[in-house]
Write a structure and sequence with these properties.
Helix content: 25-40%
Number of strands: 10
Distance between the termini: 46 Å
Number of helices: 5
Number of domains: 2
Protein name: CENPV protein
Radius of gyration: 21 Å
Shape: elongated
CATH architecture of the largest domain: Beta Complex
InterPro entries: CENP-V-like, CENP-V/GFA, Mss4-like_sf
Organism: Cettia cetti
Family: Belongs to the Gfa family.
Pfam families: GFA (PF04828)
Strand content: 25-35%
CATH class of the largest domain: Mainly Beta
Order of helices and strands: HHHEEEHEEEEEEEH
């Protein structure tokens, strides 16, 4: 019996009811008013706290097979790169950390193109061919999001910065912030 008690104390508590004290009534009313499960309400609260100052943008490809959400500023800093692939695709993008991106659906409908160093992962929808996001060479631990693939209503302004991708190494070396854009 002593071993069982010691073992139970050493294990972290599992999921279960949380004592909300005087806030329990407010919590229940909030869930009911917005028709949210406990998990949905908790996610809403955590997102609002963890991503303070950011908005949740949603978007996807043209046919709708690929959908995602991304937490970023309502005022986007977009890169207009002139490297060979960005020029051909007219790829303009803003960069976010991987922790602020969530693929909602379509993982099985994505395919990837790489070339040269194979560090950039150019993902696109197998059905409609649209690249709504990709993994940039400059920030392989983040995502480059195409602002034109975001749903309407969450973007306030877009500031576009040209970047000389034809001389990628030099441009990234000289740019003051691009390498750190995928850091939370």
């Amino acid at each position: 019996a002593g071993r069982t008690a010691a073992r139970a104390e050493a294990e972290p508590p599992g999921p279960g009811p949380i004592d909300l004290g005087a806030q329990s009534g407010r919590w229940a009313a909030f869930q009911e008013r917005h028709r949210l499960s406990c998990e949905e309400a908790a996610r809403l609260l955590l997102d609002a706290y963890e991503y303070r100052g950011l908005v949740k943008h949603t978007g996807g490809c043209h046919c709708g097979a690929v959908r995602f959400e991304v937490w970023a500023s309502a005022d986007l800093h977009v890169f207009n790169c002139n490297c060979s692939i960005c020029t051909k695709k007219q790829n303009r993008h803003f960069i976010v950390p991987a922790s602020r991106f969530k693929l909602l659906k379509g993982a099985d409908n994505l395919t990837t193109y790489t070339f040269n160093t194979h560090r950039a992962q150019h993902t696109f929808c197998k059905t409609c061919g649209v690249q709504s996001f990709y993994t940039p060479r400059s920030n392989p631990d983040g995502y480059g999001i195409a602002p034109h693939c975001l749903d309407d209503g969450t973007v306030q302004t877009i500031i576009t910065e040209d970047i000389n991708g034809k001389e990628w190494e030099k441009a990234v070396r000289e740019h003051k912030t691009i390498r750190d854009m995928s850091k939370p």
